[in-house]
């Protein structure tokens, strides 16, 4: 159990260390509350946007229906205009017949007028009647005179009736055509107005959908941040529990450690006394993982540093890249607790480990791993393998992207420090 005490590399038991971790845990809880509040607001915004889209969709449907009905009315009026124009064509033929009839009547009347003028302007119908040679001839002449007079009156009457009918038909058809054309203009303007309204509604709908997508993306980012914060909080809580256990066991362990140290000194003295010139051997076996250094942090993997921390491709590179071909183990740079072991579209296979060293919280990040060998909440030791170097996520060639944060990890990476200042 003493080995657990070295998890956070604290030189001695410290109640202040637990207090600091409790404070950090509280700060993370506050961040989680803020993030959850942001998620709730995003949900509310999404619900409002979806409700607005539903209402707008109903309005667009109503406009589509109105446009369809207006198009039908336009088609009906166009058909009526075509029918009226055909009616006008028929009427023009009738008018042509009437004009021809009127022209013939005019000729008859003109002939009557010429006859009347040639006879001296006065036709004595009485003389025509009295000049009869017999009674039968008298009757025939009376009938003829009556027929001529009546025929003249009929010609004049029909002439007037035909003229009046012609004028009425022309006026009625022209009025009907004007009315239809006016309604067609009105419906066309209505369609233009409705189409303009629908265009504006479609534009607003596109804006609402874009806003919903942006809000969904924000919600996704907040949810991912919430998961990371939850992992950090769980890791700190586990660290607190381990530190409390260390404090509880330290007093008993100190006595046992003193006894073992005394025994070790005695054994060394005995070996020194009995060994005259003897030497110890060392193993020449090579490991693909780097040797664990004696400093606070050890190197996470073998390989060459191909990209340092700083500005890169017009962006800030928050860590370092270490590259090496083949099967390359990746190890934890210090004792700690795995706060998150997951896959990210950008980081690929990724492990985040929380370390508490001398009361200071650190977070290490190992990205683009080929595979992971540790899980959430797992306690790891300095130099313990956590996976293999890979090329997953947004990566171009096998390498390890490593970040070290002095404090908790956050999306803006404001706590990132240069790892090369902490190990070679």
Automatic annotation (TrEMBL):
GO molecular function terms noted in the UniProt entry: metalloendopeptidase activity
Biased composition (Low complexity): 281-294
Assigned keywords, A-Z: Coiled coil, Signal
Claim: Coiled coil is one of the keywords in the record: yes
Residue ranges annotated for the M23ase beta-sheet core domain, each copy included: 315-418
Domain of life: Bacteria
Peptidoglycan hydrolase PcsB coiled-coil domain mapped to chain residues: 95-169
The keyword Coiled coil is annotated on this UniProt entry: yes
Coiled-coil ranges (or none): 32-108
Annotated region (Disordered), positions in chain: 267-304
Protein name according to UniProt: Peptidase M23
